[in-house]
Automatic annotation (TrEMBL):
<dbReference type="InterPro" id="IPR034593">
    <property type="entry name" value="DgoD-like"/>
</dbReference>
<dbReference type="GO" id="GO:0000287">
    <property type="term" value="F:magnesium ion binding"/>
</dbReference>
<dbReference type="GO" id="GO:0008927">
    <property type="term" value="F:mannonate dehydratase activity"/>
</dbReference>
<dbReference type="InterPro" id="IPR034589">
    <property type="entry name" value="D-mannonate_dehydratase-like"/>
</dbReference>
<dbReference type="InterPro" id="IPR013342">
    <property type="entry name" value="Mandelate_racemase_C"/>
</dbReference>
<dbReference type="GO" id="GO:0016052">
    <property type="term" value="P:carbohydrate catabolic process"/>
</dbReference>
<dbReference type="GO" id="GO:0016854">
    <property type="term" value="F:racemase and epimerase activity"/>
</dbReference>
<dbReference type="GO" id="GO:0009063">
    <property type="term" value="P:amino acid catabolic process"/>
</dbReference>
<dbReference type="InterPro" id="IPR029017">
    <property type="entry name" value="Enolase-like_N"/>
</dbReference>
<dbReference type="Pfam" id="PF13378">
    <property type="entry name" value="MR_MLE_C"/>
</dbReference>
<dbReference type="InterPro" id="IPR018110">
    <property type="entry name" value="Mandel_Rmase/mucon_lact_enz_CS"/>
</dbReference>
<dbReference type="Pfam" id="PF02746">
    <property type="entry name" value="MR_MLE_N"/>
</dbReference>
<dbReference type="InterPro" id="IPR013341">
    <property type="entry name" value="Mandelate_racemase_N_dom"/>
</dbReference>
<dbReference type="InterPro" id="IPR029065">
    <property type="entry name" value="Enolase_C-like"/>
</dbReference>
<dbReference type="InterPro" id="IPR036849">
    <property type="entry name" value="Enolase-like_C_sf"/>
</dbReference>
<protein>
    <submittedName>
        <fullName>D-mannonate dehydratase</fullName>
    </submittedName>
</protein>
<feature type="domain" description="Mandelate racemase/muconate lactonizing enzyme C-terminal">
    <location>
        <begin position="128"/>
        <end position="259"/>
    </location>
</feature>
Length: 405
């Protein structure tokens, strides 16, 4: 089954998405997500100029060989741009294989390990009261796990909250440049434990709670925060420190029993290897889109399972519904799946471009049992929402020093 054509679409039905469509000689097509937030067009160029010409005429069934060809054959391996591009190709090929087999992709992996996918949503707010109100709403909607993020008092643009109720890409004006936010570790450390104290006092311990530090602390600061949060029994703390120096997680692990999650910026198994085999983390957050596709993510899951580490794929709104559906299949299969980040149901604009169906029931996400990923892409609708250049924010300390966003 030869590859006849590869199309790359960039659209912005609220957010920028890069979608790849591979078409075989018999007309069967598959979809993949290549979105790299803030660097979308770099991936588009990689796909159109360097990948697509090499794959026309190749056998679409040879998923593993094509993945190795694109990874090893490029010599310049790793990197967010190249792995996002490879991921989209890999995902589209799995979609094709599922359609040709007339099976959902999870069946090709070995079948289901569970009846539905446990998800956690986001309860954000500019005050503790607003966060708790949103948490109560999500509990009533059936969520069993929720991430809490709250703006710091007297601080502009805290991660996870929306300044003026707007997302960062809405704050960039007519000539978009990275918006700047500010950070104070002291204010943060003094404030966040109170958020979880009040959440537990109001809602008890039946609801699983987690929190994203977004790599803004040093290992010893993160250790202190995790100790402060131990009484509130979090599901996990995400990205407590940067991952470039893996041993930072060793420091945190030695000081606290709060579970740790990281890996949304990992591109390969090798990025996670040291943390997993030393059991410095409890959850790997690597996404199909940013981790090179389903082919390597399955290997990552198998490796993590040897060390009691669970999978908790990244699910931010800049990952398209194609990635969400790929995660659904992966999560249904993975024996060591933990929890899936889920930002809720899409806007009318998003759902006009991407046709798919998921349903939340009692904390679990379900999908229709369709061949392949079970999602389609409307090329004509996508034309109504052209690409808009945007960036992730830049973060600075109060004295102006550039910091981790």
């Amino acid at each position: 089954m030869k590859i006849k054509d590869i199309k790359v679409f960039v659209c912005c039905p609220g957010r920028n998405f890069v979608t790849v469509k591979i078409i075989t000689e018999d007309g069967t097509y598959g979809l993949g997500d290549a979105t790299l937030n803030g660097r979308e067009m770099a991936v588009v160029a990689y796909l159109e100029e360097h990948i697509a010409p090499c794959l026309i005429g190749k056998d679409a069934h040879q998923i593993e060989d094509i993945w190795q060809y694109l990874y090893k054959g490029a010599y310049w391996q790793n990197g967010a741009v190249s792995t996002a591009a490879i991921a989209a190709i890999d995902m589209a090929l799995w979609d094709i294989k599922g359609k040709l087999a007339n099976m959902p992709v999870y069946q090709l992996l070995g079948g289901k390990s569970r009846k539905g996918v446990t998800v956690y949503g986001h309860a954000n707010g500019e005050t503790i009261e607003e966060v708790l109100k949103n948490l109560g709403t999500m509990i009533n909607e059936g969520y069993k796990a929720v991430r809490l993020q709250c703006a710091l008092p007297d601080t502009k643009g805290t991660y996870g909250t929306m300044e003026g109720k707007k997302n960062y890409y809405e704050l960039q004006g007519n000539r978009p440049l990275p918006p700047e936010q500010e950070w104070s570790t002291t204010k943060y450390m003094n404030f966040i434990p109170e958020l979880f104290k009040q959440a537990r006092e109001k809602f008890g311990y039946a609801i699983a709670l987690c929190h994203d530090v977004h790599s803004r602390l040093t290992p010893i600061e993160a250790s202190r925060l995790c100790k402060l949060l131990e009484p509130y029994k979090l599901l996990f703390i995400e990205d407590a420190v940067t991952t470039e120096n893996a041993e930072g997680y060793k420091v945190i692990r030695e000081h606290t029993d709060t579970p740790l999650a990281t890996g949304e910026k990992f591109n390969t198994l090798w990025d996670a290897k040291e943390m997993i085999q030393n059991q410095w983390i409890d959850y790997v957050r690597t996404a199909v889109t940013h981790g090179g596709g389903l082919t390597p993510l399955k290997k990552l899951a198998d490796f993590a399972s040897l060390y009691h580490v669970r999978m908790a794929p990244h699910g931010a709104p800049d990952l398209s519904p194609v990635c969400l559906m790929a995660h659904m299949h992966f999560n249904l299969w993975a024996p060591n799946f933990g929890v899936q980040e889920f930002v809720g149901f899409g806007t009318p604009e998003l759902n006009e471009v991407f046709q798919y169906k998921v349903e939340l029931k009692d904390g679990l996400l379900y999908m229709d049992d369709k061949p392949g990923w079970g999602i389609d892409f409307d090329e004509e609708a996508a034309k109504k929402y052209p690409y808009k250049r945007s960036y992730l924010p830049v973060n600075r300390l109060e004295d102006g020093t550039l910091w981790n966003w």
